[in-house]
Automatic annotation (TrEMBL):
Keywords: Lyase, Metal-binding
A Pfam match: HpcH_HpaI
Domain (HpcH/HpaI aldolase/citrate lyase) ranges: 10-235
Record-linked PANTHER family: 2-KETO-3-DEOXY-L-RHAMNONATE ALDOLASE (PTHR30502), PHOSPHOENOLPYRUVATE CARBOXYLASE FAMILY PROTEIN (PTHR30502:SF0)
GO MF terms held by the record: aldehyde-lyase activity; metal ion binding
Protein name: Aldolase
Lineage, opening ranks: Bacteria, Bacillati, Actinomycetota, Actinomycetes, Micrococcales
Stated family: Belongs to the HpcH/HpaI aldolase family.
InterPro entries: Aldolase/citrate-lyase_domain, HpcH-HpaI_aldolase, Pyrv/PenolPyrv_kinase-like_dom, Pyrv_kinase-like_dom_sf
Length: 247
């Protein structure tokens, strides 16, 4: 379970390169998320990256924790990412409390859930220690649909939810607005405040995909404490431009 509240900054990885994740993980970022929903990661490349990183994927030796965003809120995909050794999952398109319960069921061994046992590489959950597995992982549920927003308090209160993670692009599109308008909205009961309040009340983290470094502090101002500041693709472009600019 996650207990700290200081902002943790991380990045999404879209390019399916284990070596690149290792480099990102040693950059000072606190977490990296392998994105199998929109990025190029798949079952095989996730296994290759987590095999390369081994226990350091949990952040044990000062490297970034490595999480996985599965393609969907799917029992098999969530279990496979955790079996492979991911430190946790950021699950997309959770559309309400029923979906959230299914994610909890897939992520945790009994009694909290009904994850199927078979950790081939998992740093949590040696054969005799399912409690360590249940206690070690991070389970983040993406809030990015009106259905999730409507039930955000119930979702946050579920046992096993460690974080609500806002996907501002899907959320703003589905609400008929834009990411910047969401960030500018300080009206009573605005969407980001509702997620912040639900997280606070449940004592869990509030994560967000800022996409760009300049948006990260704006999410922190709204109460987010787990923020994706960039991606491997954007950082590569930024690094090249910075190198050229310094000539
Ligand atoms: C969103 O903003 O919808 C996301 O899922 C970010 O990856
Ligand atoms: Mg999304």
């Amino acid at each position: 379970m996650v207990t700290a509240t200081a902002p943790e900054y991380g990045a999404f990885s879209f390019i399916d390169s284990p070596a690149l994740v290792e480099t990102l993980g040693r950059s000072g970022l606190e977490w990296v998320c392998l994105d199998a929903q929109h990025g190029r990661w798949d079952d095989r490349s996730i296994l290759a990256a987590l095999d390369l990183l081994g226990p350091s994927a949990t952040g044990r030796d000062g490297a970034a924790r490595v999480l996985v965003r599965p393609r969907a809120a799917d029992f098999g995909l969530i279990g496979r990412a955790l079996d492979a050794g991911a430190a946790g999952v950021i699950v997309p398109m959770v559309d309400g409390v029923e979906d959230a319960r299914r994610v909890i069921g897939a992520s945790y061994y009994p009694p909290l859930g009904h994850r199927s046992f078979g950790p081939i590489r998992s740093p949590f959950g040696a054969a005799d220690d399912v409690a360590a597995a249940n206690g070690g992982i991070v389970v983040a549920l993406m809030i990015e649909t009106p259905g999730a927003l409507a039930e955000v308090d119930e979702i946050a209160a579920l046992d096993g939810v460690d974080m609500l993670f806002v996907g501002p692009f899907d959320l703003s599109a589905s609400l008929g607005t834009t990411v910047d308008a969401l960030l500018d909205d300080d009206s009573e009961g605005n969407p980001l405040s509702r997620v912040a309040a639900a997280s606070r009340a449940a004592g869990i983290r509030f994560g967000a995909f800022a996409g760009r470094p300049d948006r990260a502090p704006r999410f922190v101002d709204h109460g987010a404490d787990f923020v994706s500041v960039s991606s491997d693709l954007d950082l590569l472009g930024l690094g090249a431009a910075t190198a050229l600019g310094s000539l």
